Automatic annotation (TrEMBL):
One of its GO terms (biological process) is nitrate assimilation. Its EC number is 1.7.1.15. This is NADH-dependent nitrite reductase, small subunit. It is an enzyme of class 1 (oxidoreductase). The gene is nirD. NCBIfam families: nirD_assim_sml. GO terms for molecular function: 2 iron, 2 sulfur cluster binding; metal ion binding; nitrite reductase (NADH) activity. Keywords: 2Fe-2S, Iron, Iron-sulfur, Metal-binding, Nitrate assimilation, Oxidoreductase.
Length: 104
């Protein structure tokens, strides 16, 4: 496992996201209403909309382009839609967010 320190938890808005770039990969780090953190590729499994610009509700983000709901924990499209984007393991320690870049 390779954990990388990313940012302070407080720098991510509640029910919002922050983007980090790792090489060519753009990862959206979301914070839900209860303070949970999720890290997911910033690419919608439908037509590559930027999930970081979507609306967060529960543990789901709604893509801003065509309103697909994507589960932040699994990266799976919900409802009648199908597709999946990569998610990354994350953890919070001492107020800092860490990501594990090995994809799940
Ligand atoms: S690109 Fe996300 S719903 Fe179409």
């Amino acid at each position: 496992m390779a954990w990388y320190k990313i940012t302070e938890v407080e720098s991510i808005p509640s029910m919002g996201s922050r983007i980090v770039k790792i090489g060519e990969i753009e990862i959206a780090i979301f914070k839900t209403k209860d303070g949970s953190i999720f890290a997911i590729n910033n690419i919608c499994p439908h037509k590559q909309g930027k999930l970081s610009e979507g609306l967060v509700h529960e543990n789901v983000v709604t893509c801003p382009l065509h309103n697909w709901d994507v589960d932040l924990a699994s990266g799976e499209a919900l409802g009648n839609d199908s597709g999946c984007t990569n998610v990354y393991e994350s953890k919070i320690e001492d107020g800092l967010v860490y990501l594990n870049f090995i994809t799940k």
